[in-house]
Amino acid sequence: MSSETGFDPALYARFPTRAPRPDEEKEELAHIWCAPKGWDYLTAVNNSYIGLYYLGTAFLFFLLAGILALLMRVQLAAPLMEVLPQAVYNQVFTMHGTVMMFLFAVPAVEAAGVLLLPQMLAARDLPFPRLSAYAFWAYAVGGLCFFASIFVGLAPDGGWFMYPPLTSKAYSPGINTDFWLLGIGFIEISAIAGAIEIIVGVLRTRAPGMSLDRMPIFAWAMLVFAAMIVIAFPSVILATLLLEIERAFGWPFFDAGRGGDPLLWQHLFWFFGHPEVYIIFLPAAGMVSMIVATVARTELVGYRLIVLALLATGFISFGVWAHHMFATGLPPMTTGFFSAASMAVSIPAGIQVFAWIATLAVGKPRYSAPGLFVIGSILIFVTGGLTGVMVAMVPFDWQAHDSYFIVAHLHYVLIGGMVFPLFAAFYYWIPSISRRPLSDRLGRWVFGLMFAGMNIAFLPMHLSGLQGMPRRVSTYLPGQGLALPNLVSTVGAFLLAAGVLLFLVDLVRNFRFAPGGGTAGNVHDAGTLEWLPTELYSVRSIPVVASREPLWDDPALAARVEAGRYFLPRSATGLRETIVTSPLRAEPQYLQILPGPSPWPIAAAIFTAGFFLALTVQAYGFGLASGLFAVIAVLRWLWESDRRVAAERVDIGAGIEVPTYVTGSASHGWWAMVILLIVMGMIFVMGLFSLAFLWSNQPSYWAPPPAFRGAVPILLLDLAAAALAIGGRRLLLRGAAWPVVAFVLSTAALGGALWLDRGQWAAAGFAAEASGQGAAVFALLALQGAAVATGALMAGYCAARALRGLVTRPANTSIDLTMLFLAYAAIQGLVGALFTRAVGA
Amino acid sequence: MAREEVMIAAVGTLLLGACHPAEIAPHDAGAAAIARGRDAARRLGCGACHAMPDSAWPKGRVGPALDGFGDRAMIAGQLPNDPVRLAAFVRDAPALVPGTAMPAIPMRDEDARDIAAWLQSLHEQ
Amino acid sequence: MRAWAIMLSGLLIWAAHFFILYGIGEFIGDGFASRLAIAALTGVCLAICALLAAAVMRMPPRDFFGKWRMQLAFAGLGIGALAILWQGLPALLA
Amino acid sequence: MSNRFLLASTSAGWPPPVLDPGGPYAEPVTLLAWALLIGGAVVLAIVVAALGTALFGSKRLKAKLGGERAIWLGGFLFPAVVLTGLLIWGLSLTSSLSPQPGTDAMRVRIIGEMWWWRVHYLDARGQEALRDANELHIPVGRPVLLELESADVIHSFWIPRLAGKMDMIPGRTNKLLIEADRPGVYKGQCAEYCGGPHALMGFVVVAHSAKDFERWRAARRPADGGGGPGLDLFLASGCAACHTIRGTAANGLAGPDLTHVGSRQTLGAGILPNNPGTMAGWIADSQAIKPGNRMPAYHQFSGRELRALAAYLRGLE
């Protein structure tokens, strides 16, 4: 055995401990992690609550978007129906797609992660509980406001992909489109927050000994999921920002008449949009891998191949975005790259499918409801995958693209790849959070109705597509043979809905929320840690993990965990806490103090919602105030964090001592900041790409940029800012005031560099409204402006903490993170100044 | 019953035919003719001006809705609503009602007859 | 970082290869020179995959987890190489 | 004349247009489509068989399936081989269907509008020779190079029996080759969501034999000026602000060119048969037919006026 951190793995042999643990420890844990009462439910941050709220809200959106789908199917049941007028239909299909993709699918899998991961990893909670709470409330409040737009006829009607120029001010003058940009704004914030939470949670809060090769597949899937969000969402963040700026201020990013390009939107949107499909699919595939093993009563065959498949999907899915653009006139060689990558991405999917089949072959499958849903999901997903390979062929896609063939394909992929696994997961995991399991008998009916309904609804759509029925049509003319397949589809849709309705009946009859104690327990006889007996504090003691299915390999584990014979059988500090472990081998590193319930995350979320809503209805004063309050609420919640506790080192069991406060690159805060900076960096890189893309596609609108000469003082200032930031952190040894002074100077240097940069572009005659080039350059400068402003805010926060004596020496996390941010901002400014001058020079 | 109707129609047709020698000779108004008439009306796009029962689009608003046409006593408020005149009217309205907005529409004899049969089969629900 | 770089090497090479290819197609064009460059780059990337695979095979597995990581890297290089090969085909055929 | 009633006459649901190619730019795709559909069904059958074996098979068969070797074979090797073949097919087909410079094709520029199509026939030098709307006439057996553009939002041009679709994007000119083997009428529809009545944005391609095409071409002369009361009404009612009728004072550019509107197969961009009745109905209240289209309703005409106008326009052949 070798070590990653210097921790001696031989120490694991001290567990399980022998000495009996006093009962008071358990009482203290229960007291520290007590359940909310009354209004406390709003301030709860524990993953058991936030995860369930999250999942419930996501499922509500599934039902709402499903009702919209039924309305559409009624309208399309026969040719030339008039159930929904054209204008309403256009809103309904836009909302169906948007809500299903953004407000149901991503939040639902993210919610499953929040709910299940800590238990699966035997952590007490996720590392940033308040961030989870904020992400949830922002999503819930914003999502519901967004959905409400359909009741007042102000719902977006440009399709979920929102292609400009249809969505530009000229062709969509109403605020409908702004509602979309608002709704997506929330989900971007909440998805990124969730991703940070999940990456740090999976890599740093696993039970000791749970090396990467012993991690539950679901955790692997969530890790890849979160990493993909970090890379993919910045693209749509930038795209929505640019479109909103174009609509509000007339900067022509997508206006071909002024040197913009509508195709830029498509690149930015699909660079997010296609990985999005895998972002939805991978966690569900992770669920299937977990459930298959339990249902087959054997360990997963090909574990490492599945891990590889998850990773490979994560990578290759970033090379397929333009297969949504095969008909836009891309040159054949370019479409060929995307065609090849689209084929390559089916290989990992095939590996997973055959691994599931192999697992079923080895084991003795039980045909319980989760088992049926898993088998059904494999069949449906494979069908969708095969049509996926078909449309990866460019010439076939030219015919199938934007027709009902694609509608069929994508629903097979998403329903087989995500909805069925999610229902399998409901039937599988609900016993771990509810006093009663769901009814297996009803579950079979739910499965039967949904499986039959799904196929009856979507199989005929392959045909109607080949018959020439385009997507997003509110009606169709008779005499094309479309009436019959459409009628069949409508019948199928209602069967599918009947299945979902029956599930709701089952839920109402049997679901009794019991976070922690008193759950139905391990009814499926599963082997992973989430089936250990838990309370609100998760497990009584955190076990040493020696295999992938610890409960199968060590039947006595549950009892020993409950008896407190492993790590952290008590609260070492009297606070909420969890063990932070190393990323590869999960060796214990330090004890993280977790924040408890707080009203500030929900307050911040409500003000964030107010900010976006006010912008949508153009109440700028109210919006500004809301934004300000949101920032204050976030700072207020952060204020209580980053504190040392009295005991610098504590015993986390069997005499193993770890520190309670760690700074630098090993700390969870540092990791979170680095991930946030990757997000910012991706937004910036996509901005740079936008500039280069416009230059390459609209050369006639290009003007020579300012000379490189002018960039020299900008570079010097940015370098100085970076040096001050890094030096400031070192100076903390000398006193808390030094880094604050250095940070303020660093921010000033950043601001100066930005001021110079902006001035040179303005002096060279560029204006943001004048051309695509001007718009892109000033958008990059605005991004840098946002970074500088945030840096200034962080410097001010450090100053306030220093004044209050909260900046402890010799090292302090707040100082670390501010240093990282300022150094990043300096690099961003420097790269931007050089790149903008290089494009078209 | 259907047979009787056919007989009555045939007799009526003969009588009417005597009065209007230039008109199209009507034929049986059976279910097949009604169905053919409905299809012909759709094919010709009558919906561009008239809302037609059991066809949701187009629902033209220029001319009167055709729902319950069989119950109406008059065509365009001026002509007795009988199969022969109706068949003539749908093909060449201005010839019978000079001020109408409905143009003459080229169609075959059978189409005109079928459409008339279909129109007269429309009753208020 | 090194551990991750080894585990993900095949996929990282695929990513570099893909984005360079896309950049050539988007910003330079599909002329003969571009196609030649793509063919050459594809060859180089495949060679790197082969060399890395050989190196990974020779690495001494220190324990079960170390061996597992090497297997993951090796299989990843295989999938990466197939994808890279496909990625290069359009320069020859389309 | 019979194809004037195309909307109802093509009642066939089978074979679907994508599988019923009408020319050399659709045929190889149909072959590919059949190969993919059948191949897909075979692979699905294999997976179902594997799944069935895993669940209900004999011990011996299950043992064969239950290991990493089966995963490598079924999940990696098999798709790798099949997909390599498909990729090569797809790539070479893509390149052979893409317009190459220097083809001896008839050239037509088609410009997508919300929610209709401008059609400009070009001569060999690329100069505009003839304008029309919503309908394209082509000779059989000769490739036609379409230059696809957009005047407002993104549309997509799709005649399934003649070729795959190609987007019309503001600021770009996309090229698409089509060719019909046999005379006939080929229908199509906008395939990219373009707001409002996107569902009602149809298009018609009419393929003629070479001789008929020349005859059709020769008959495209400006209106002879014998408009009478219909033309007077047309000019007096403001129709000319949006529509052009060559040979008259009407020269509006916002709407379709009506010089030959009487000879078109359809009205309202591929959605209504073209006869005096539908013409009158469209003029008087097109909003009831195609909600949201850019032509307002004209309720002010008397019956006689409406008929005169419709008769005049119908006469523009």
Automatic annotation (TrEMBL), chain A:
Pfam families (UniProt xref): COX1
Keyword Metal-binding carried by entry: yes
Keyword presence, Metal-binding: yes
Record keywords, A-Z: Cell membrane, Copper, Electron transport, Heme, Iron, Membrane, Metal-binding, Respiratory chain, Transmembrane, Transmembrane helix, Transport
Ranges of residues in domain Cytochrome oxidase subunit I profile: 27-558
Subcellular location as annotated: Cell membrane
GO-annotated cellular components: plasma membrane
Transmembrane segments: 52-72, 92-116, 136-155, 179-205, 217-243, 277-296, 303-324, 336-360, 372-394, 406-430, 442-463, 483-505, 593-613, 619-639, 670-695, 707-726, 738-756, 776-800, 821-840
Residue ranges of every copy of the Heme-copper oxidase subunit III family profile domain listed in the record: 588-841
Membrane topology type: Multi-pass membrane protein
Any Gene Ontology biological process: electron transport coupled proton transport
Domain of life of the native organism: Bacteria
GO molecular function, one term: cytochrome-c oxidase activity
Coiled-coil zones: none
Protein family (similarity comment): Belongs to the heme-copper respiratory oxidase family.
Protein name stated in the entry: Cytochrome c oxidase subunit I+III
Origin species: Sphingopyxis flava
TrEMBL record, chain B:
Descriptive protein name: Cytochrome c
Assigned keywords, A-Z: Heme, Iron, Metal-binding
GO terms, molecular function: electron transfer activity; heme binding; metal ion binding
Residue intervals of the Cytochrome c domain: 32-123
Organism: Sphingopyxis flava
UniProtKB/TrEMBL annotation, chain C:
Top-level taxon of the source organism: Bacteria
Transmembrane segments: 5-24, 36-56, 68-89
Keywords attached to this entry: Membrane, Transmembrane, Transmembrane helix
Protein name: Uncharacterized protein
Originating organism: Sphingopyxis flava
From TrEMBL, chain D:
Catalytic activity reported: 4 Fe(II)-[cytochrome c] + O2 + 8 H(+)(in) = 4 Fe(III)-[cytochrome c] + 2 H2O + 4 H(+)(out)
Record flagged with keyword Cytoplasm: no
Family label: Belongs to the cytochrome c oxidase subunit 2 family.
Family matches, as Gene3D superfamilies: Cupredoxins - blue copper proteins
Protein name, as recorded: Cytochrome aa3 subunit 2
SUPFAM superfamilies in the record: Cupredoxins, Cytochrome c
Membrane topology: Multi-pass membrane protein
Transmembrane regions: 31-58, 70-91
GO molecular function: copper ion binding; cytochrome-c oxidase activity; heme binding; oxidoreductase activity
GO cellular component: membrane
GO biological process: ATP synthesis coupled electron transport
Domain of life: Bacteria
Domain Cytochrome oxidase subunit II copper A binding: 103-219
Natural source organism: Sphingopyxis flava
InterPro entries: CcO_II (IPR045187), CcO_II-like_C (IPR002429), Copper_CuA (IPR001505), Cupredoxin (IPR008972), CuRO_CcO_Caa3_II (IPR034236), Cyt_c-like_dom (IPR009056), Cyt_c-like_dom_sf (IPR036909), Cyt_c_oxidase_su2 (IPR014222)
Subcellular location: Membrane
This protein's UniProt keywords: Copper, Electron transport, Heme, Iron, Membrane, Metal-binding, Respiratory chain, Transmembrane, Transmembrane helix, Transport
Primary site of residence: membrane
Function: Subunits I and II form the functional core of the enzyme complex. Electrons originating in cytochrome c are transferred via heme a and Cu(A) to the binuclear center formed by heme a3 and Cu(B).
Chain ranges of the Cytochrome c domain: 225-317
Pfam short name (any one): Cytochrom_C
